[in-house]
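Protein Entry — a single chain follows
Next Lines — sequence and tokenised fold
***
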Amino acid sequence: MKDVTSNHEAYAMIRGSNVVPFERDAGFYLQKGMFHYQKNKLDKALFYFQKAVSVEPSNPFNHYNLACMLSKLGQLKEANRVFLHIVTELDEAMTDCYFLLAVNYGILEEMEKSREFLMRYLQTDPEGDLSFEAMELLDALDDDAGVDQLPAYAERDLFMERILKSANVDEISSLFSSSQSFRRALNNRLYDGPDEFKEEIIRFYGDVGGKEAQEVLRGYVKNPWIKERFRQLALLELKNLGQRGNLQVYSAGQIRDIDLRYYPIHTPVWRQEWQQVVECAIGNMRKGNCYDEGFFDDVQAIWLDFINTVYPDTPKITKVQTWAAALEYSLARFHYLSLTQKELALEYGVSVASISLKFKEINNALRIDEKAQQNMLCYLKDEEE
């Protein structure tokens, strides 16, 4: 489609006409930027956000959109420069900039600056939308109100995990390709981070693909010091990425050359008692006619996630009803449903103590309560927006 406006302007100039050309305001460029962002054309989106700033440089929201776009593209230092410009020169009431500065400095592994801006955010806007998250981050950075600092690797884990969970694959891929410090920190956490974090990183490498991600996974599977289930997960991602030719893998006490096309990937063989647990839970849930269909998918997903997470150290199922009750209770906790362990104990014919014990195992593996809280915060934020 031709740009009619551009042709009209050109025609007016050639003819020497007094026709006043259409002036594109910042709103026009903002709309174009949002359009390209939604189409995942991030470079074009950045161009139009920059145009909006140049047309209306006194509007802090134009700068804010630009800084957020720069952050998504991994240009964190430039993004921080813009965020600082907003609160120091344009609008000191835009306190979210302090929080975003803290996150960016965390990714850049400048933890003192990250801590400084978290404190500044809480000081300037103690009742702000992000105050709870800011306090959680500070608690992790400053153990016991700043008496003992956490090791540097724990601080980086906090921010790496936040990025992996809060951004989509395209955004993280952009950060992965543009930030060397992010790639280095991600690779380090693959070896010394918490187990559930390692799984997220392995899956991320499978999602992002490319030569560099495959190279990381190839080095990972031949390391003798990693857990076997992580090795198998990495092999599965490599297989899905179309890994061809021989591959070196640590197996049976030595590094061996294998052809991944014919190499068996060991994943949990689904046991009958595992299926009985989820069927028992679903059967009890259907009796009350108070669950929508989506809940049945969720309870199966929670159980499958639990088995895959603890594998190969899966629990011995001695009483199906106890685990089924704990599974339904996990679902209730995840969705903030008003269902107690006492009620479930009566329904399943088991003790409250046994449900509590099994739920603790599930929660320790999956962090049900923590994820529920994060989902609720996201939901409330979306509702406000």
Observations:
- The chain has three domains: 22-155, 172-262, 272-384.
